[in-house]
Structure formats: structure tokens, C-alpha cells
Amino acid sequence: MSRLALADKRPYLVLSVIAALAFYYLRASDLPEFYLVPIKGSAVGFLALYCWLRHSSKSAHLLAAALVAAAIGDMAIEFGLIAGGAAFFVAHVITITMLLRHRRPPLESGESLVFIGLLLGTPFAAYFLPYDQNLSLPVALYALALGGMAAGAWASDFPRMRVAAGAILFVISDLLIFAGLGPLSGSPIPEYLVWPIYYLGQFLLAVGVITTLRKRDPELRVVPGGVN
């Protein structure tokens, strides 16, 4: 598919990528925060529009709602970690609700180990990353929802190479944020890697879910007023 065809059929994906790249490069400029923060939020916000308009199922709309909450979190976190974390916590809960509608058959032993590792390993790692012990418990509680989202993606019947991989990238990006409160404090690594890893994770998750839903329920693909 050519770039023109992609822009014609999936304009919100194109706008999302443009916004994500714009934020990544413009944040090093002198552009006022008044303009920069909405650009950041629009990257995942356009993914939410993509999900809402590409499929009319409840699962697609739940994912769109989760992405709206995440877009709010992207903006809120620029003003405070707690405000951003609260919005992302809501996003994870909504995503988990959506994923529970698409559980795959019982996991095999090796798959179960990955599931448990994501569910429990994420908050365990998050708890020990911040140097400030007052942050350890709140971070771990948030990470329990984060790990639950990733574990739910792994245990869902969506393609793991997209949806589970996207969720795991989300986990990695957040652990880098928490590491910036501890062992990576003062390091440029979180500053340069968190956003691209996070955005790629959200992109893979959104596209993976919607592409799968459109194949399974083609009769729900066309939404009045949307782009087929």
C-alpha cells in the first residue's frame, strides 16, 4: 500500500505518527509548552479516533476510550507524575476490560510463566526502582494495573507479535520512567527512549486489535461518518 493510499484510508494513523514525531523533535526546541503538550496528547488521541472509526464493536470503542485516557495521561504527566499516573491507571483498567472479552484457551505452562512474570514481575520491579521509598508503594500499585494490562494482552486471542508486544513495550517505557527516579536518575536514556518506546507500543496495540477485529467481524468495519 502506497503512502497516498495509507493517508487516504487511514488518515488518523498518519496524523498520529506525525504528531508523535513532531513532539519528539520539537520538545528540544523553544516551542512553548502551551503548544507542545497538545501535540503530545494528539499522538495517541488520533489513535483513539482511528479505533473508534475503523470498527463499531464494543471492544473497539473500549480501546478508543482507553486511548483517550492515555492521551490525557500523556498531557497530564507533563505537569505531575501523580496526575499522569492516575489517567494511565484508568486507561489500563479499561484496556483490561476489553482484553477480558477476548481470552484465548487455557495457557500452556511456558505461556503461563510469561503471564505471571508480566502480572507480578512488573509491580515487583517497579517497587524497587525509585530511590524515594515514599514513591515505591504508589508506583507498585500503578504497575500492578500496568502488568495486568500486559498480562491480559499476552493471554488474549489477539496476535502477540502486535498486541502483546505493544503492551510489553508500554511496560518497558514505564519502567524506564521509574528507573529515572532511581538508578537512571540524571541519565539521558529515559529522556530519549521513553516516548518512542511508549508510542510504538500504543501504535502496535491499537493497530493489532483493530486489524484483528475487522477481520473477525467485517460487517462492523464501516462506521457512518468514518473512513473505511
UniProtKB/TrEMBL annotation:
Regions that span the bilayer: 12-28, 34-53, 60-77, 83-100, 112-129, 135-156, 163-181, 193-213
Origin superkingdom: Bacteria
Entry GO CC: membrane
Pfam family, one: YhhN
Protein's membrane topology: Multi-pass membrane protein
Subcellular location(s) of the protein: Membrane
Descriptive protein name: Lysoplasmalogenase
InterPro entries listed in its UniProt record: TMEM86B-like
Predominant cellular place of this UniProt entry's protein: membrane
Assigned protein family: Belongs to the TMEM86 family.
